[in-house]
Design a protein that fits this description.
About 40% of the residues lie in helices and about 15% in strands. By secondary structure, the chain is of the alpha/beta class. The chain has two domains: about 190 residues, 3-Layer(aba) Sandwich (D-Maltodextrin-Binding Protein, domain 2), CATH 3.40.190; about 210 residues, 3-Layer(aba) Sandwich (D-Maltodextrin-Binding Protein, domain 2), CATH 3.40.190.10. Strands 2-1-3-12-6 form a five-stranded mixed β-sheet. A three-stranded antiparallel β-sheet has the order 10-7-11. Strands 8-9-13 form a three-stranded mixed β-sheet, with helices on one face. Helix 2 packs antiparallel against helix 13 and helix 17 packs antiparallel against helix 18. The longest helix is centred in the N-terminal third of the chain and has 20 residues. It is globular. The two termini are about 30 Å apart. About 50% of the residues are buried. InterPro entries: Bact_solute-bd_prot1, SBP. Pfam families: SBP_bac_1. Keywords: Signal. This is ABC transporter substrate-binding protein.
Length: about 450
């Protein structure tokens, strides 16, 4: 799951970026030193209690299931905030040396930043490597560094195209299989109805991960990063594949073939529910999101694979995803690792809650590839077995590194996209501008940057 699953204002991220920028250089200098902390948890007779911070929907039921099936370890759940609200509290606690939970929910893009502070326990020392074969390869690689395991994957956001079948029929549109066809159908739609758009271009900060997912699909790999190789990092945000994506969407914007409303606004929600948007380029958690904000369109949507840059291709991208990490402050590393591994893990009972009630998209391969998940029918999508689209997408995603300054990178990208939308910057210059600012920022923080 992503904090963008229920998009809200992310102005708090800008505050967090400022605080992170002030401290990151010092953190990098200390990153090769020893970690530690006062830890949290309970002692004494009886089961060990492990404090968990998480914001998953219906998580209370998952905790109850874990506690019912585990005698010696019990989970005490705290909802400490969503996304940046939780991360800010976590960073404050880690810096203070006390107050962090034993186990914490973290989105994948946040892992390098938190790990850089020596705030995460290496669960590989407590048996977590045994789970490697239970998860899709790309997610496990984001959660680990060689034999060091800093997170256990939970859910992800493989991308696909949701589309209004009724509108496609009304305007005689073809379901596009390539981005070239997508543009052609967008022009056809807008000519038939100037008030209709193929989709909404995610230009604000809540859609930064959406844009990253699209460049991911196109083959862009903006970072080459491993905590074990600090302070080295590769940064290439302006490769040909990234530029191709931004110039493509910039062209759609300039020709008014897509809308430019900010995500997480009433106008965006209305666009999804009124027929203003014929498609929604979304993630594996999108069905739950869409069905909650566009309820009256139930039965009208279908899901198709993400359009490809090359006909017949099978390139995929991801938008969002989360994991469980154990913090360095835990006093019960063995039990905390057990909780991180088994709250969801390969538990059929937990995943039934996660799939049916929380619309999580599993990254545990036994669940991901199960007949139950792949064959599940969704009434909102006219009874379509939509996971027969999403599961191959998830299995086809390639490896991808995040940076330890992802918040700053997302802010910078959003700012440059905003300038392009206002005509202040050419779309062809957006990626170069972002590259210049990110490499300068990283060097000032003490990273040795290769381009």
């Amino acid at each position: 799951m992503s904090s963008t699953r229920r998009p809200t204002s992310r102005s708090v991220r800008r505050t967090a970026v400022a605080a992170t920028s002030a401290a990151l250089a010092g953190v990098l200098l200390a990153a090769c030193g020893s970690g530690g902390g006062s830890g949290s948890g309970t002692t004494g007779s009886g089961p060990v209690h492990i404090k968990v911070w998480a914001w998953y929907p219906q998580f209370k039921q998952v905790v109850a299931e874990f506690n019912k099936t585990h005698k010696d370890v019990q989970v005490d759940w705290v909802q400490a905030g969503v996304g940046q609200d939780e991360y800010t509290k976590l960073k404050t606690a880690l810096k203070a040396g006390q107050g962090a939970p034993d186990v914490v929910m973290l989105e994948f893009q946040e892992l390098p930043t938190i790990q850089l502070t020596k705030g995460l326990l290496d669960m590989g020392k407590y048996g977590a490597n045994a789970d490697k074969g239970n998860y899709v390869d790309w997610a496990w690689k984001q959660a680990s560094d060689g034999e060091h395991v800093y997170a256990i994957p939970v859910d992800g956001g493989p991308m696909a195209m949701m589309y209004r079948a009724d509108l496609f029929k009304k305007y005689n549109l073809k379901v596009p299989t390539t981005w070239a066809e997508y543009k052609e159908e967008a022009a056809k739609l807008h000519k038939a109805d100037p008030n209709a758009y193929m989709t909404d271009f995610g230009s604000d900060e809540t859609a930064a991960g959406w844009r990253q997912g699209l460049t991911w699909q196109a083959g862009s790999r903006p970072y080459t990063y491993s905590a074990s190789k600090l302070p080295d990092i590769g940064v290439k945000l302006n490769d040909d594949n990234a530029k191709k994506v931004y110039e493509y969407w910039g062209d759609l914007v300039k020709n008014k073939l897509v809308d430019t409303q900010s995500y997480a606004t009433t106008d965006f929600y209305n666009g999804l529910s009124t027929g203003k948007y014929a498609t929604y380029i979304a993630a594996g958690w999108g069905p739950g999101y869409l069905s909650s904000v566009a309820k009256k369109t139930a039965g009208k949507w279908r899901v198709a694979p993400l359009p490809q840059w090359t006909a017949g291709g099978n390139d995929q991208g991801d938008w969002g995803g989360s994991s469980f990490s154990v913090t360095s402050q835990t006093q019960h590393p063995k039990e905390a690792t057990e909780v991180a591994r088994e709250l969801f893990g390969t538990s059929d009972a937990a995943w039934k809650i996660g799939i049916d009630q929380a619309y999580l998209f599993p990254l545990a391969t036994p669940t991901l590839n199960s007949e139950y998940f792949k064959d599940k029918k969704y009434d909102f999508f006219g009874g379509q077995q939509i996971n027969k689209v999403f599961v191959p997408a998830a299995n086809g995603i390639g490896a991808f590194d995040w940076s330890p300054f992802q918040d700053f990178a997302y802010n910078t990208d959003t700012s440059e996209v905003g300038k392009a939308l206002q005509g202040q910057t050419a779309w062809s210059a957006v990626n170069d501008n972002v590259q210049d600012q990110i490499t300068s920022y990283a060097a000032k923080q003490g990273f040795k940057v290769s381009k």
